[in-house]
Amino acid sequence: MTQPPGFSDPYYPAHVCRLHKSLYGLKQAPRAWNDRFTLFLPSLGFLSTYSDPSLFVKHVGKSVVILLLYVDDILITGSDSAAIDITIRALTKEFDIKDLGALHYFLGIQITQTSSGMFLSQSKYVADLLGKANMVHSKPCTTPCLPYNRLVKDDGHPFNNPSLYRSIVGALQYLTFTRPDIAFSVHQVCQFMHCPMDSHYAAVKQILRYLQGTIDFGIQFSKGDLDLHAFSDADWAGDPNDRRSTTGLVVYIGPNPISWSSKKQNTVSRSSTEAEYRALSSTAAEIDWITQLLQFMQIEVSGPTTLFCDNLSTIALAYNPVMHHRTKHIEVDVHFIRERVAKKLLQVQFVSSNDQFADILTKGLSTHLFRTHCYNLRVGKPHSEIEGRC
User: Fold this and answer.
1) How do the domains of the chain map onto residue ranges?
2) Is 238 buried (19+), middle (13-18) or exposed (0-12) by CB count in 10 A?
3) Residue 305's beta-bridge partner residues?
4) What is the mean pLDDT of the chain?
5) pLDDT in tens, 288-307
6) Are 217 and 381 within 8 A, CB to CB?
7) What is the pTM (predicted TM-score) of this model?
8) N or C: lower Cβ tally within 10 Å for the chain?
9) Predicted local distance difference test score (pLDDT) of residue 390
10) Out of 3.30.420.10, 3.40.50.2000, 3.30.70.360, 2.40.50.140, which CATH number does the structure's domain 224-380 have?
């Protein structure tokens, strides 16, 4: 190190400045970098999307360049390779950026490019997690939770290492980005972070044992149409601790699932119809968000989005313009769905419970049904290992 220009001491030329704070590693450093980068992008013609502030889109004639920013990690893609190269050169002139080439690894997610699409997995992340929990050599199991079993708040004795419980469960949450098959199981164990019991940690260990046997599983994305459709489901009063219902939703673009969720509803539902209607409303809101994102990238969604539900009473309520005194307390959700149905933005259709893809996100299932829905969600081994099945 040397003395900075303009602040050199002629009497002590060998001395250097003592820093009271580190230049890197400050809490505000990532924010400062993000502000600096996002202020520069508009000069290149990029616009920030309203749906996602970390996603930037640039339209060049009929082509498009898409940039995704996460702190100092950047993904760039688009429909014109020349426009992408121009963007990379412009960023390199302004910032010290290293081009790593084609996408293979991003934020713990491994990406394998294939002729038909891509395969996303987190096998390295799973291996590290199993090592952290000392379960590398554990015996695999077929499902991440027991069929139709729910965890109870005060079941058993308090777990003797709650910090370990919170650390593992927090890591499992990140794994659901590419593993929708464990979303419901992780949703269950997340509810007991403040005071975990031995039975709750046993449920965590079952998830890890399932991951041990499916460490190379991921989600397959393949080329196809841009038809937008979704599945919505609810497990009415399924939680034995507070009798709230669980919402499960999955949204598809063509054959590919792009958004999924397993979440407990905020209030207690007094009927299965009400629980399904709240789930329907959450799914419709997710569809709205995805539609806005696609429109910003100039990808038009043709026709109304089909939303599949396995409750006939809920579907009838969505199309019936007459309010009933029994539905006044869910009037906001009713109007939210009906408005989109009336504008022909949404089309609610019936689907049998056996074909309800979101069922895996609301409850534990038997091995056969669980594997069926894993196939529906395109969760499995890499394409080259599954003998032609996507």
Assistant:
1) 29-101, 120-216, 224-380
2) middle
3) 346
4) 86
5) 999 988 888 888 777 889 99
6) yes
7) 0.83
8) N
9) 32
10) 3.30.420.10
CB atoms inside a 10 Å sphere around CB 157? 9
| DSSP SS3 for 138 | coil
User: 22 φ, ψ to 5°?
Assistant: -70, 140
- Cα(362)–Cα(129) distance, rounded to whole angstroms? 25
Q: What is the pLDDT of residue 171?
A: 94
Question: Residue 105 in 3-state DSSP?
Answer: strand
Neighbours of 214 (CB within 10 A): 22
User: How is residue 15 written in tokens?
Assistant: 């001395």
Contact 116/223 with Cβ under 8 angstroms? yes
pLDDT band at 388 (very low <50, low <70, confident <90, very high): very low
Task: Please give the structure tokens belonging to residue 210.
Answer: 């399932």
**What is the C-alpha separation between 217 and 377, in angstroms, rounded?**
12
Cα dihedral angle (35, 38, 40, 45), rounded to 10 degrees?
Answer: -160
Residue 266, C-beta contacts closer than 8 angstroms, at least 6 positions apart: 244
Both tokens assigned to 72: 């100092």
Q: Give the tokens for residue 194.
A: 């403040």
- Which one-letter amino acid corresponds to residue 241? N
